[in-house]
Design a protein that fits this description.
With 247 residues, the chain is an alpha+beta fold. Helix content is 16%, strand content 40%. It is elongated.
Length: 247
Amino acid sequence: MRKKKKSGRRNRASFVGRIQKNPRGFAFVIPHERNLPDTFVSPREARSLMNGDIVEYSVERMGKRTSAQIVKILERSCKKALGKVQASHRQFFIESSEGDLIALDNAERNLVGSWVIASIKKYPSDREMGVASITSKLGQKLTPEFDHLITISRFGIEEAFPAAALREIDDLRRAAQQEIQKPSPLRKDLRDLPFVTIDGEDAKDFDDAICVSERKDSNQLQLLVAIADVSYFVRPDSQLDIEAKRR
């Protein structure tokens, strides 16, 4: 996406891209147009930005170097932040993995040093830190059981699915039961064969399996690999398909 915008004595083109923060304070903006290069964002310009923000920006050249000038923040992608609680001058805050400092309005002294997830109430500006409220306390160490919460926080994913997508899931559950009871004539039913799943015990879904058997007409082994046919149930442009792409 490219626009023309007046800036000083000449028109300057502006673009749209996604912010990628660095813990050292600066950032890069990744343009939506694939043929354009990533552009450096100075620490001063990056103060009010958070990782994943969608921005409109222009490119300023200084000799051989280029830097992005932020025209407008179009969308705030980060709704929650993950960080370790710190304290300074009676103020509590967290520092995210991308280096963002976010003030906490509901922290207590005994939480200093603990990892938390906080919901953002006010985004940062050029002069002030953002403000957030703690929603999940993860303890002194991050353990694997919190991986899904960390991912949700880091990428700004909503925990709840839209109502329309949940209704589709109920419909698909009924359709799957019907398929089990009466398989489509387009399929060959191999449920009498001893398939074994290759997914681990802690897997959230079991969608891959193998079956190894000895061929009767030779000394060779036959390997069958079964992979779940998700596309049979989740159709293009359905609510689930749209939500999956968004996530």
